[in-house]
């Protein structure tokens, strides 16, 4: 048995990389249905503007809602023409069985008008599904941030102990990029979910002076924005949507990376609600969901790179650039949807482990308070001297063992070190950041 061409199409892997309802948007049937919706809206608008006979327009519009077309029957024509629309037009006219009306089907449009506009209809649905999942994830992160705003844990930079943070502030840092993406979404939909309707070379030559009115009418009928121009060779609208999805997947992948480190053996600062098992090691609790988030982010990033290259569309239309979009955009969309769906399920099950977090402070030998100690000593000596002194104390603790608190007390018996040591007193504005994020997340 061969592996499927995409994990999202695989009977084995599709539940692991679950994109939810978004998977249904990137099928041949969904593409054909979207193109027929566009053709129906086009005919309706043309009838109202007198471009084609109104009776024919009504017949075509009704037929696009009623006549099913077999996607498989379009394959040979697509192989010859490079696009499925000529085959769709021919099949629809035959199925309509009303040549006096069917002759006006697809009047003056080009394949890219129909394909790109149909894609925008599906991207609108995709963004709606992803938005719903992100909102649920933000709600869960807000709950974690608020409930654990003052739960101290080790901050780490370059994988090393840094200074104390709170688990609530970590949850807030996870959520802030998601919150930013969500705030951008309305503007993204308005500026990028565009109708494409400008004819063969982007000038609407068949419709002449009626082109702007026709484009506006079809846009209104489909609930998409009217760009007021051709964007056949300007892939900016698609690139903006892809960029948003990639940034979202990247933000979710960062959560996956962090959680994978938090649940590893010897750390155990977070417990997953759902973990995977091993075929041979019964003790394993594998971080499957965090790993899916990371993998989905990597796929999105890779696909985005290819898509950016496809933005170099030559002249008025570029077949190779367009074909590249068909190959990579669905995978990017499904990877981002998979990340959103996985995070929606994973985040509510995260459980911080206070004892393990405290153990990190105990194991650090007080070294997480080194920065605080150097500033505390600066009140009693010049800052450079205080920094040098703390570095010496840290080397002593690392080489000989013991605790920084005891080493400092021995070196400076006359200085009160009580304000320095103790995790909860060194959280800075972490708790306030956590609570502010929670409030913002619930307000969006």
Automatic annotation (TrEMBL):
Keyword Zinc attached: no
Record keywords: Isomerase
InterPro entries: AdenyloSucc_lyase_C, Fumarate_lyase_CS, Fumarate_lyase_fam, Fumarate_lyase_N, L-Aspartase-like
GO MF annotation terms: isomerase activity; lyase activity
Top-rank taxon, per record: Bacteria
SMART domains on file: ADSL_C (SM00998)
Domain Adenylosuccinate lyase C-terminal: 365-438
Matching Pfam families: Lyase_1 (PF00206)
Keyword Zinc set for record: no
SUPFAM superfamilies hit by this protein: L-aspartase-like (SSF48557)
Family named by the database record: Belongs to the class-II fumarase/aspartase family.
Protein name: 3-carboxy-cis,cis-muconate cycloisomerase
Organism (species): Pseudooceanicola batsensis (strain ATCC BAA-863 / DSM 15984 / KCTC 12145 / HTCC2597)
